[in-house]
Amino acid sequence: MMRRFLLAAFLHLVAAPAFAQTSPCTSLPANSSALPWDLDFVADPGVRVDHASLAKPFVDEQGRVHLFYQSEPSPHRSLYATSADGLTFEGNRPEQPGDLRYHPFRVRMPNGLWRMFSWSPQTLQVTSRSSSDGVTFSADFGVRYSLAADDKGWMGIHDEYVDGTARVVMLYLGDKTGLNNTRRAVSADNGWTFTFDRGDVLGDSAAAARGGASAAYVDQKSTRLEGAARRLFAMKQGCAIYSFFTADGDVYAIEPGWRVSINSWPDLSIRSLHDPLVVRLPDGRFRMYLAASLNGAPGTAAHSVIVSATTRSPP
Hints:
The protein is mainly beta. It has helices spanning 2-15, 18-22, 205-211; strands spanning 41-43, 52-59, 65-71, 78-83, 90-94, 107-108, 114-120, 125-131, 138-139, 145-146, 155-162, 168-174, 181-187, 195-198, 218-224, 230-236, 240-246, 253-254, 260-261, 270-280, 286-294, 303-311. The strands form 5 sheets. Strands 6, 7, 8, 9 and 10 form a 5-stranded antiparallel sheet that branches. Strands 15, 16, 17, 18 and 19 form a 5-stranded antiparallel sheet that branches. The longest helix is centred in the N-terminal third of the chain and has 14 residues, at 2-15.
């Protein structure tokens, strides 16, 4: 009898998914049951776009959602789709790089010029493109920013915006194999010249130093609220999306609980979450678009999809 019991226990362990045994998400704390409306994101059922990642949504003046994203798996393609309700997308056509009027990564500088920023892993420098109309962009000459020594030659996700004092802020990930956390550079000349300002923007350096890069908040992107206030959303360990608030675009403070987790979508078997980006809908609600890595069926590989979650309506 004992031998059969031990054999059954052994077979149970062998059959259990490896992810379930090793995932840090098994210790994810319970969320608050009394969140304010703008922090209470509820998962929208189903999938927005299948075999896709890196969701970049923009809501136009008519309330239509324009979604830029990357096809999965490799070879990746930059694709674009639109939706009248923000939930059902159509088109899935190649991105048109000559027309960027709906791209969420354009930033309007204090002087009215539009800019988009990109980092080159070959030169370790940030360059830019500019536009007077926000539609057609041309490459600028020179370099906007060179990485700090502590960045260890790497820049990950970066996010640019104008703060309450008309400075252009760049938040970016650095030191991929070390702290892998958010740093900040600032420009006082309309995004032309950035200077390193500080590291440890989200207060996770100590945790990352103890527990490794996975202990940091990553995939950070911010959303403008009222005035100069912003809310930044970031992922930790693939398990959940957290938020940070700033009243003026300067210092961010973490907010209670998490916004969504891998368990928020009961109709999907989610392995991990990535790259949240939040937009404001015409009715005042906020909607988060993000990539979810789904557990594959037996004998199949996991694959990435774009999902969404939406807050309650404002009071």
